[in-house]
Write a structure and sequence with these properties.
By secondary structure, this protein is an alpha/beta fold. The chain has a single domain, classed as Rossmann fold (3-Layer(aba) Sandwich). It contains 8 helices and 7 strands; from the N terminus they run E-H-E-H-E-H-E-H-E-H-E-H-E-H-H. The protein has a 7-stranded parallel sheet, with helices on both faces. Helix 4 links the parallel strand 4 and strand 5. The longest helix is centred in the middle third of the chain and has 31 residues. The N and C termini lie far apart (48 Å).
């Protein structure tokens, strides 16, 4: 299909990493692309390098940490390209924190602003029209880190646990409407978000492999999935461990780098 007949996907955080890989996968599937990021020049460069048909691409500059900014991008998408079939709230940050450090409370506030409020604001313009249409998919990108807290990851783990709970609430709200809410929780994916981590990253996936698996989950309308599945098994085992055993298991584990750390 071409033009306005082709399905449409709206993706935030599309300038790099998982967002960019998802954009490439959906483009190969014949979708039109509505890509949003602060760094629009990086999307432009990627589109040129990939030979993306500009008739199937619109770029929206937006900061998900600013509610009015990302809501306006969603509204502009509807006005220019129509109501998307799939909306993927992918934009997110991961920064280490130490609660004893005053500046790191600001890191936590920014993390929640992007990873949680930004996700809800991304969905906001599309919920009512999708409900009226009787269909669509709203996709929240969580993390396996949502399942148990990790040392030095207080802001990130809490925010991603919030993503999982928020998407579950929204899924229940929209269940009778025909709108699917999908929660995808990546394990470790080789992106700028994970590069430089000071600990082992089992079952590490390349962004393209993650995007392929996530695409299949989203298209099937699954409610929740950890990718890769092996990481989901590990996470469930860790969730079942008594706190004393879990605390001992993560003692001495490398902490996520704080802002400004080399």
């Amino acid at each position: 299909m071409s033009g306005t007949q082709a399905p449409l996907v709206f993706i935030t955080g599309a300038s790099s990493g998982i967002g960019q890989a998802l954009a490439a996968r959906y483009y190969r599937a014949g979708y039109r692309l509505a890509l949003s990021a602060r760094r629009t020049s990086e999307i432009e460069a990627w589109a040129l390098e990939q030979g993306i048909d500009r008739g199937r691409l619109q770029i929206y500059g937006a900061d998900v940490a600013q509610v009015d900014s990302i809501v306006a991008a969603g509204q502009s998408c509807i006005a220019r390209q129509g109501l998307p079939d799939v909306v993927i709230a992918n934009a997110g940050i991961s920064v280490g924190m130490d609660t004893a450090q005053r500046d790191d409370l600001g890191v936590m506030a920014q993390t929640f602003a992007i990873n949680n409020l930004g996700l809800a604001a991304t969905f906001h313009p599309f919920v009512a029209p999708m409900r009226e249409r009787g269909g669509g998919r709203l996709v929240g990108i969580g993390s396996v880190a949502a399942i148990r807290g990790l040392p030095g990851h207080g802001a990130y783990c809490a925010s991603k646990a919030g993503v999982v709970s928020f998407c579950e609430s929204l899924r229940c709200e929209l269940r009778a409407s025909g709108v699917k809410v999908v929660t995808v929780c990546p394990g470790y994916v080789d992106t700028p978000l994970t590069q430089g981590n000071r600990y082992g990253m089992p079952f590490l996936l390349q962004p393209s492999e993650f995007a392929e698996r996530a695409y299949r989950v989203i298209e099937a309308g699954r409610s929740y999935r950890v990718i890769p599945w092996q990481m989901g098994v590990v996470a469930k085992v860790l969730r079942l461990l008594p706190d004393t055993l879990y605390d001992r298991a993560v003692q001495g584990r490398g902490r996520k780098k704080r802002r400004g750390e080399q």
